[in-house]
């Protein structure tokens, strides 16, 4: 970006030692600023880019097809004793094996809370720059050395009845909010649909996996108890034990809670991995 500067870059003078030149060059780098008349200006009428071709993602291409989604219901409860929500972590949804390509969030209720916003950002590549050009990079890209290579994409206000849809290449985070009236509780409830890649075959779903609640199976066994009549308890326990040991077999409530904790740990690890990609630092150095 040398063309942005009015001052000529200094050269080492005859007889000038390296230390003196380095000091003079450093002072030049610290003092120079982009010349306003040399910063490129956008001129002429705006020309829209060519229309985006969504290909297999076009809405008419998906019309009439069965789509696979993962559903989540979430409520953030605030109370007079805990009146503030600190905000969520920046993340994209799911693991690679879940193949989530888009997210739809529907806000069911926003009761007695301050403004809640959902913020977005995306990863960007490192810009081209002249080495050690801190002032120029700051003026053109609004970036400093070691800043994360991310581009903010704004934020949407959450309100009851609103639905927000976005691709799973954007990181998003819930911004902090609190109770409006701190003398009574409040909540924010959402239902989320994670769209699984419709161009890939993902075999496991509730269409092919039987219900896994042990309590449901116990209830069915009671309803159809005639099939167990005459069998000793040990036989019944043996069959249930074999089902529980099988892959995808029924789970007790306690086992499901333990499995949920493992899933949350996995999600935390995945979020940290994604963060390393999205937040890789911009290194303004010699190259």
From TrEMBL:
Domain of life from the UniProt record: Eukaryota
UniProt cross-references to InterPro entries, sorted A to Z: DUF4246, DUF4246_C
Residue ranges of domain DUF4246 in the record: 60-218
Signal sequence, renumbered to the chain: none
Identification of the protein by name: DUF4246 domain-containing protein
Species in which this protein is naturally found: Aureococcus anophagefferens (Harmful bloom alga)
């Amino acid at each position: 970006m040398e063309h942005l500067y009015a001052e000529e870059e200094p050269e080492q003078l005859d007889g000038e030692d390296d230390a003196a030149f380095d000091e003079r060059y450093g002072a030049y780098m610290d003092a120079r600023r982009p010349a306003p008349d040399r910063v490129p200006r956008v001129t002429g009428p705006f020309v829209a880019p060519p229309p985006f071709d969504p290909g297999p993602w076009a809405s008419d291409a998906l019309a009439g097809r069965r789509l696979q989604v993962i559903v989540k219901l979430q409520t953030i409860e605030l109370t007079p004793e805990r009146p503030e929500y600190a905000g969520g972590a920046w993340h994209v949804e799911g693991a690679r094996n879940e193949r989530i390509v888009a997210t739809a969030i529907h806000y069911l209720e926003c009761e007695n809370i301050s403004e809640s916003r959902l913020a977005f950002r995306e990863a960007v590549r490192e810009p081209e720059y002249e080495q050690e050009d801190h002032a120029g990079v700051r003026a053109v890209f609004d970036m400093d050395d070691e800043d994360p290579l991310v581009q903010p994409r704004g934020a949407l206000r959450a309100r009851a009845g609103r639905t927000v849809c976005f691709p799973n290449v954007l990181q998003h985070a819930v911004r902090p909010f609190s109770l409006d009236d701190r003398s009574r509780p409040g909540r924010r409830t959402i239902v989320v649909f994670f769209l699984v890649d419709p161009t890939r075959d993902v075999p496991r779903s509730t269409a092919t996996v039987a219900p896994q609640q042990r309590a449901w199976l116990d209830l069915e066994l009671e309803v159809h108890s005639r099939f167990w009549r005459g069998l000793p308890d040990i036989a019944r326990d043996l069959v249930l034990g074999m089902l529980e040991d099988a892959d995808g077999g029924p789970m007790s409530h306690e086992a499901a809670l333990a499995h949920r904790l493992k899933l949350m740990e996995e999600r935390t690890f995945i979020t940290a991995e994604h963060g390393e990609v999205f937040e890789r630092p911009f290194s303004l150095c010699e190259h």
